[in-house]
Amino acid sequence: MSDIYNKLLEEAKSASKYAYSPYSNFPVGAAVLYESDKIYTGCNVENASYGLALCAERNAVSNAIAQGEKTKIKAVAIYSPKQKMCMPCGACRQWLSEFALDNKTAKVILENKDGETLVLSLEEIFPYGFKFDED
Ligand code: THU
Question: What is the pLDDT along the chain (135 residues), one digit of tens a residue?
Fold first, then answer.
């Protein structure tokens, strides 16, 4: 396992500590690695109007955009202390796909049930996502 993926998972773990999740009590952290080799983190942010919850992954991607990141996503790590293998939700898969280098190359890093680092491609977990035709 490459050191950078382990580092990314550690960053996601740290980010989960900042989660604001009083309603679900399900903290999530995400860390996104870009081609620039910069890492941006995010946590979930909930609201009394439950449907307005912002996922950790989209928070991390928004953080990157807001800081002027222009390169593409190489990998994203996701972590919740409440659940091993915290998979990104459908909306976050679509968001990650928007900014991914390409879905085959971009990797999703998770901690499996044995505490090991698991690497999937975005393509594996998000085939046939929505995209406008390129012409
Ligand atoms: N959540 C994330 O942050 N990322 C996901 O991909 C799935 C769900 C958050 C949203 C909500 O605050 C809590 O987890 C429970 O759904």
Answer: 589 999 999 999 999 999 999 999 999 999 999 999 999 999 999 999 999 999 999 999 999 999 999 999 999 999 999 999 999 999 999 999 999 999 999 999 999 889 999 999 999 999 999 999 987
- The dihedral of CA 88, 94, 100, 102: what is its sign? positive
Q: Is 35 a catalytic residue?
A: no
Q: Whose CA is nearest to atom 6 of ligand 1?
A: 88
pTM for the complete prediction? 0.96
55: CA distance to ligand 1 center in Å?
5
Instruction: Name the residue of 13, 16, 24, 28 whose CB sits within 8 Å of the most ligand 1 atoms, as the mutation to test its pocket.
Output: 28
